[in-house]
Design brief:
Oligomer: single chain
Shape: globular
Radius of gyration: 20 Å
Distance between the termini: 36 Å
Helix content: 40-55%
CATH architecture of the largest domain: 2-Layer Sandwich
Order of helices and strands: HHHEEHHEEEHHHEEEH
CATH class of the largest domain: Alpha Beta
């Protein structure tokens, strides 16, 4: 099929429309065209045109009272289809639940999206589980988390360079501190299979990549609310996380045979 200029325009509009949808985050349920333009870097006129199209297609709702736009229920339906159709999640869930209960830790599974990690599942079995605010679909920053650094450890040189460019743009003020921390975590993850980060006060997280076949790279993590040192928590959680990963890979291999 011949690629025509009009197709290039259509594809660019599609990409921009998806960037508009990605601009919505928890706590930002309603966004005006100006706010969307600021968050995406798109021209206000482009945003105005595309939000109108997204409303007509059923992906956005116009909130006349707030003078902005909200995501529609269509997005919830798409998310449900994605999760219910996830081969890795379906085969991993019971193993994650069993390990979380046995070890009394929070167990999560996440995927990368741009410069964030998105939770595909979170099972809160650790002490103080009621304090656990992570929910399915929640984004956490790739640069700051064990999830993100474990994911980065799987990238080749070209892909890692592209990821670092995104991360540097987002964390420009602190990048001189973050970059060496991330690079050190990548080395640890490549050698030991996991890395640990305590990026929030009182919370320690250990994460490792889950690589299987042609599936996208998933990342497993275990976390605890604790006053113990990160080194101690890592020593306690890492063996269980390794066993969980190996069990999941064995289950995936069996299921795909």
């Amino acid at each position: 099929m011949t690629f025509r200029p009009s197709q290039a325009v259509d594809n660019r509009s599609l990409v921009r429309g998806l960037e508009i949808l990605r601009a919505f985050r928890p706590g930002l349920g309603c966004l005006t065209n100006s706010e969307i333009a600021e968050r995406t870097g798109l021209p206000r006129s482009t945003v105005s045109r595309l939000t109108g199209t997204l409303v007509r297609c059923g992906y956005l709702l116009h909130d006349a009272g707030m003078g902005g736009y909200r995501l529609s229920a269509t997005m919830v339906g798409l998310a449900h289809v994605m999760r219910s159709g996830s081969f890795v999640l379906n085969e991993s869930w019971s193993l994650m639940q069993t390990m979380g209960r046995q070890m009394r830790v929070n167990v999560g599974l996440a995927l990368a999206d741009h410069d964030d990690m998105v939770y595909l599942e979170n099972l809160p079995f650790g002490p103080k589980a009621s304090l656990r605010k992570i929910v399915v679909g929640q984004r956490v920053p790739m640069a700051l988390t064990a999830l993100g650094r474990a994911y980065l450890s799987t990238l080749d040189e070209v892909a890692l360079g592209e990821a670092f460019a995104l991360l540097k743009k987002r964390h420009a003020r602190d990048w001189h501190v973050l970059e060496p921390q991330i690079r050190a975590a990548i080395v640890v993850a490549q050698v030991q299979g996991y890395c640990a980060v305590g990026w929030q006060p009182g919370v320690a997280s250990v994460a490792m990549p889950l690589v299987f076949g042609h599936e996208p790279v998933h990342v497993l993590n275990m976390s605890l609310y604790t006053d113990d040192s990160l080194a101690h928590v890592t020593e306690v959680l890492a063996p269980g996380l390794l066993r969980l990963r190996d069990s999941i890979v064995a289950r995936l291999t069996e299921a795909s045979a």
